[in-house]
User: Fold this.
Amino acid sequence: MEYKIGFIGLGIMGKPMSKNLIKSGYHLTVWNRTASKMKELVDLGAKPASSPKEVAEKSDIVITMVTDSPDVEKVVLGPSGIIEGSMEGLIVIDMSTISPEITRRIAKKLEEKGVEMLDAPVTGGDVGAINATLSIMVGGKREVFEKCLPVFQAMGKKITYMGEHGMGQTTKLCNQVMVALNLQAVCEGLILGAKAGLDLNKLLEVVTAGAANSWALSNLGPKIIKGDLEPGFKLGMLQKDLRIVLSTAEELDLPLPVTALMHQMLRIAQADGYSEKGTQAMIKAMEKLSNYRINY
Ligand code: NAP
Assistant:
């Protein structure tokens, strides 16, 4: 079946993901809070909507890619939200990174109206969104996942069913712990090299070829050296993700000591105004703490 797809949230991730759906031949209805961001998609053939409700009325599947849990709650359950325009059989796929607990709550509310939900957060960054190479981790009913698989395949490469509602988000939280701690490792390694007088480009060349390599090192290392702080993945988003990680760990009586410290490190960078910059701006917090600037 050729699904009519609705897409809500055309930010750094949502815009390229929706473009890839159009490229794969899907008919798209789009909505973004800041209406001007819809233009590029409309120029490619998408239909603009005036609210999430209207998106739902015109779609078989509605994808949301917004910031945080309250934002998903608002576009799904709020006034003029998806639920108001939904018919029985609609599928809502939330691809934002939000709380597993709130995901389960939203899924329950939708189920009462005969609407299915999948939580399907992603990893792979803006580059993965542009190249349709995202890794997508999915929670919800398996049969709904299987129905939506071709849609996921238009946006990603590694698509994995993780279990019931919330398990996609839970997987993403584990991912974010590793992403955050890798980021800090890159910042600390680079500032040590800089202060000790190494050529950072050479350092990067050597360590990316060995056991220290990671996504953070090979993608963010060059940006740190160049002084390019543009997002990618916003620092404030990672801080939001670790907040969700820590509250989930709290519910599980689980200590995550280094993650808790990293959460505070991100707060330091936020307090200095780097929330809307890429996560590589974490180097700025390290520069401040060490009273040393990497030369660029
Ligand atoms: P972004 O560029 O800041 O875009 C956020 C989008 O959400 C915008 O379209 C924004 O609308 C919309 N939005 C936020 N609050 C809203 C609300 N209350 N009502 C309606 N719309 C709202 O962020 P992004 O990088 O695309 O990230 C989106 C999600 O993907 C986040 O959950 C993030 O954690 C996750 N993620 C991001 C990356 C990455 O590398 N960037 C990777 C994996 C996962 P406006 O345009 O009006 O502001």
Remarks:
- The chain is about 50% helix and 15% strand.
